[in-house]
Amino acid sequence: MHYLHIVLRYSALSPPIAMMAYFVIQKISNRKESRFMLEILRRIVQDVGAAPDLSSALAITVNRIRAAMKVAACTVYLADEDNRSHVLMATAGLNPQAVGRVRLGHHQGLVGLVAERQEPLNVADAPRHPRFHPVCEVCEEGYHAFLGVPLIQYRRVLGVLVVQDSAVRQFDSEEVDFLVTIAAQLASILNHAILSGATQELLNPLNTHTRALQGVAGAPGVAMGAVTIPHLLADLDDVPDRLSQEVASEEAAFHAAIAAVEQELREASDRLAPLLPPTEQALFTVYRMMLSSDSLIEDTLGGIRAGRWAPTAWRDAVLARVRLLEQAEDSYLSTRAEDIRDLGRRVLQHLRAGPDQHPHPAAGRCVLVAEDMSVAHLAAVPPEQLAGIVCLRGSALSHVALLARAMGIPAVMGLGDRPLGRFEGSDIIVDGYHGRVYVNPDPATRAEYRQLMDTEAALTVGLGKLRDLPAETQDGYHIPLYAKAGLLTDIAAARDSGAEGIGLYRTEFAYMVRESFPSEDEQYQIYRRMLAAFAPQPVVMRTLDIGGDKTLPYFTIEENNPFLGWRGMRFTLDHPEIFVTQLRAMLRANVELDNLRILFPMITTVEELDEALRLLARADQELREEGWPVTRPPVGVMIEVPSAAWQTGQLARRADFLSVGTNDLTQYTLAVDRDNARVAGLYDNLHPAVLKTVAYIIENGHRSGRPVNLCGEMAADPGAAVLLLGMGVDSLSASATSVPRVKWAIRSFSHAEARELARQALELETARAVRQLLNDALRRAGLGEIVHESA
Ligand code: PEP
Ligand code: MG
């Protein structure tokens, strides 16, 4: 179990080290000393995990390693932010006064050599090595044997872990294996500390410039506000670190919550008694015993009296016990950990429901910060206060990012693991162009961003003037520019943007904000309002596209590879009752308006399209028989999977139009999960393979006489929009907030220039070169303000 856990963690490491670590674990797990080694490793990881801060964690690590390996010294060096030097951060065996003071140049000494070569260095007599660099302050005169191992996470050398001994000797392979394994664990802890800014203060105490936390650009724009954690409090881990001076009311709320859960358990136990076997019934007794445990109650009350908010104090008391039980080897005890956690959640629900336990965000601009975000999280802040969104998981293509873009709210995604509660209430800058955030920014950073926001505001005013002008090139070629929508609230933004209709209405959002599948009538109301708002301009309604990262709270789909699983058309064809209900609602909503177009998502085979068309014909027939004056709307196919791209011709002949979904097409072409922050750097819809696929789709769609729309996020990128125009795409669908910029770009080029740009782009070999080409073209056309190089 332990090595499984450890090996899993390696998947986040750089490939050579991950491989090495994997083999080390395999090797040591086969040896008879393995249990001993793994036990030490486990203990170090546990102690480090429980350490209050980074300095203590490093101090514990070096002391434990020195004792376990029986060596004279163990030291950790960390690379500073600019990678200019290695700072001695903790030592057991060298001069403790050197901590934080000794800095080696980045390539200096054996430490520099380890970092440079990115592999372990085992030297019998260090002072004789040509790269040895004596540093008087560390007092290492008596040491000869040297073993240094790089601390690497995501290909980046974070520092070097060193052990030294007095004898002249080579460290044996077991010692090397051990240190490599520890280093891999330590690197992941350090990476977390670096991301949360904990190392910054230690490494650069004099540097007052705020360091950016790097994530992934989610939705463009810049925002400032106070970190606000949406309090769904569904899970203990989401409870923020919050203080409260209202001891009496916090205590009362806590006692009331405990009493409510006791009552709930008693009722549940009575209700289920005749149905449950005795072993299951006993669980209620166990729960009640846990709930009345004096120590759990006392610890929580102690936390409240020490000034903590009741949910925070409860969280700490519960999680301390969960951790203890989880560490137990005994499966009975580790199962109890889950029980305590469950109990913790139940009490939390009641604490949350209490009248004074729902602190409203302070008036003023708020930046919502959460691990994962749903529409319900967004509702935690009044819309006029919502300035920005920061999501620790996900990427630019996660649905919260798409929503943020639709709402015009800057967003940063995939910031990685970091304790949420720490930041609550702090000032934060969200740079949605470069995927960066600054927590508690210094005055210079603040002023810089303030200026950027002013420039943005001026640009927005300027772009507003384009609202009623056509999306037309300088030589008069018109390309319809549509907006995208997901909720009825998007109607106003789409209309204000000057779009010529809705090119993609994602119907799943209406399903996501509910507690059960909507009825035909409920859907009819929504669709009717949408169609009526734009008639006679077209509204392209896409049928339900759930699965992947879009799940319904009332219909969870658990799969190992959700993006390759039961999503989009695969799901709806397997549930014709849901599909036909939706089609009927759409067709009814279109009566007498006649501006509906229906779009089928995630088509991968011709048979799927045939079946979907058959069901559409059935819905149409049923409605006619019931007396509805329905008409058959134009039907489109999303081309967002390589198999569909290669069958563009066959699919096009069966449909009225095509719509290229580059968000998915990119993920399936490049084998890069659109929702995984770890590989977000590899996700690029300007990749030549994606461009060639899009060119193929356009050409073959046209050969079959069908127009080709493009509705992926690519259409919202002004440079890419000009490129797509040049490639021959017939219309573009961008989020409402991007429509003015895209229009501005289109109006700044001639059709011939766009075609020439496309010709050149299709000859390039890398996405970077394509981006450079587009940015240069935008600058030459005087659109420098909307060029935002990737970070
Ligand atoms: C796409 O895949 O490009 C697309 C528009 O669909 P979605 O992002 O909703 O999957
Ligand atoms: Mg898609």
Automatic annotation (TrEMBL):
InterPro entries: GAF (IPR003018), GAF-like_dom_sf (IPR029016), PEP-util_enz_mobile_dom (IPR008279), PEP-utilizing_PTS_enzyme (IPR050499), PEP_util_C (IPR000121), PEP_util_CS (IPR023151), Phosphohistidine_dom_sf (IPR036637), PTS_EI-like (IPR006318). It catalyses: L-histidyl-[protein] + phosphoenolpyruvate = N(pros)-phospho-L-histidyl-[protein] + pyruvate. It is an enzyme of class 2 (transferase). Its cofactor is Mg(2+). Keywords: Cytoplasm, Kinase, Magnesium, Metal-binding, Phosphotransferase system, Sugar transport, Transferase, Transport. GO terms for biological process: phosphoenolpyruvate-dependent sugar phosphotransferase system. GO terms for molecular function: kinase activity; metal ion binding; phosphoenolpyruvate-protein phosphotransferase activity. GO terms for cellular component: cytoplasm. Belongs to the PEP-utilizing enzyme family. This is phosphoenolpyruvate--protein phosphotransferase.
